[in-house]
């Protein structure tokens, strides 16, 4: 009996510890006015992106959802409209695995939108394969597509009196690295057919998000644009839709007990979008609606500059 009581106490202790640390909840308290402002968000048709789009539409923003799948985007827009009463949530086709699609998306926005106040680089995936342009899928979608989109929209963002660029990274960046010689040769951050190998590439792509934000902040000094990156928490989303069935059997029960909901996962993104006075923290990394120190190698200014230059070359901007 004593052993059973001790086991229950240990399980309860682990549960409480995890909920206070790795799976900690937070709540956005920011209240910047969004009426009349335009938000562009990638991957807003599901998960954290959808919850973020809903939160901003509820505050009166015009929300442009850049998504690959129109049917799921239309369904998400209908749900957001019904919940918020907003009629200013729209779909524009965007496939981050195609640099041509990114350019077309940005060109359409520049022609049709009089202003862009907030760019949220939200979309991401875990998986293996190649993009239309021959890049590793995670490097291409999680970093390179967002890099090109941001650069193409920067001049429009600078026209706003206080624009922000928010990039959803992950705590996984702490286990990432960027081998620039390999990247230059293979146009990829990691290869292999095993799940742990493409998870390693995912960590590398999330490190790219943090380094990109750091260099972007340096280049934006003296402008009206600030930028931030963040870890949203460990969320129940479709991010791992490409993992194997046996892995899902293991992950699914754990996710139902511990993982945050998409609404909870959107809170730090909303904090970076809506919290007053964040401009002086441009380039910083956030978690649980507060600034957090990223991994030491994510603060390497030389690596951040090198990644920017390589990304320009890959995108044909250099």
Structure characterization notes:
The protein is an alpha/beta fold and 318 residues long. It has helices spanning 2-20, 47-58, 70-84, 99-112, 137-158, 180-186, 195-219, 245-258, 262-265, 267-274, 301-314, and strands at 38-42, 62-67, 89-93, 118-121, 163-168, 225-231, 285-287, 290-291. Strand 1, helix 2 and strand 2 (62-67) form a beta-alpha-beta unit. The protein is globular, with a radius of gyration of 19 Å.
- Span of the ends, CA to CA: 70 Å
Helix content: 40-55%
Proportion of beta-strand residues = 5-15%
Mean of residue pLDDT?
88
- Helix/strand-derived category reads alpha/beta
Order of secondary-structure elements = HEHEHEHEHEHHEHHHEEH
Unreliable spans: 3-21, 246-258
Tally of contiguous helical segments:
11
Shape call: globular
Main β-sheet: number of strands, strand sense, barrel status? Answer: 8 strands, mixed
Strand order across the largest sheet: 3-2-1-4-5-6-7-8
Radius of gyration: 19 Å
Total count of strands:
8
Q: Which keywords apply here?
A:
alpha/beta; disordered N terminus; globular; 318 residues
Give a brief outline of the structure:
The protein has 318 residues and is an alpha/beta fold. The protein has helices at residues 2-20, 47-58, 70-84, 99-112, 137-158, 180-186, 195-219, 245-258, 262-265, 267-274, 301-314, and strands spanning 38-42, 62-67, 89-93, 118-121, 163-168, 225-231, 285-287, 290-291.
């Amino acid at each position: 009996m004593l052993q059973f009581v001790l086991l229950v106490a240990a399980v309860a202790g682990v549960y409480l510890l995890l909920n206070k640390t790795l799976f900690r909840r937070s709540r956005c308290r920011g209240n910047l006015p969004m009426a009349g402002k335009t938000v562009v968000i990638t991957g807003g048709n599901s998960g954290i992106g959808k919850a973020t789009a809903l939160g901003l539409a509820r505050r009166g923003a015009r929300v442009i959802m850049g998504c690959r799948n129109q049917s799921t985007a239309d369904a998400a827009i209908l749900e957001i409209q019904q919940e918020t009463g907003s009629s200013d949530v729209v779909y524009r086709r965007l496939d981050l695995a195609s640099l041509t699609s990114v350019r077309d998306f940005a060109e359409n926005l520049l022609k049709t939108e009089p202003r862009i106040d907030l760019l949220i680089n939200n979309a991401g995936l875990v998986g293996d394969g190649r993009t239309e342009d021959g890049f590793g899928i995670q490097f291409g979608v999680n970093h390179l597509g967002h890099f090109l989109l941001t650069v193409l929209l920067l001049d429009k963002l600078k026209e706003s009196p206080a624009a922000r660029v928010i990039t959803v990274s992950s705590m996984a960046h702490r286990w990432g690295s960027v081998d620039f010689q390999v990247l230059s040769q293979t146009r990829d951050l990691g290869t292999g057919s095993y799940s742990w190998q493409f998870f390693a590439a995912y960590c590398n792509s999330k490190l790219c998000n943090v380094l990109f934000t750091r260099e972007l902040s340096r280049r934006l000094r003296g402008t009206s644009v600030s930028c931030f990156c963040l870890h949203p928490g460990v969320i129940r989303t479709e991010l791992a839709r490409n993992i194997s069935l046996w892995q899902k059997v293991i992950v699914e029960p754990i996710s139902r007990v511990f993982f945050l909901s998409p609404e909870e996962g959107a809170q730090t993104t909303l904090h970076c979008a809506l919290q007053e006075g964040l401009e002086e923290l441009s380039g910083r990394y956030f978690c649980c609606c507060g600034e957090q120190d990223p991994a030491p190698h994510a603060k390497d200014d030389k690596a951040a500059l090198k990644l920017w230059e390589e990304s320009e070359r890959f995108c044909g901007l250099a």
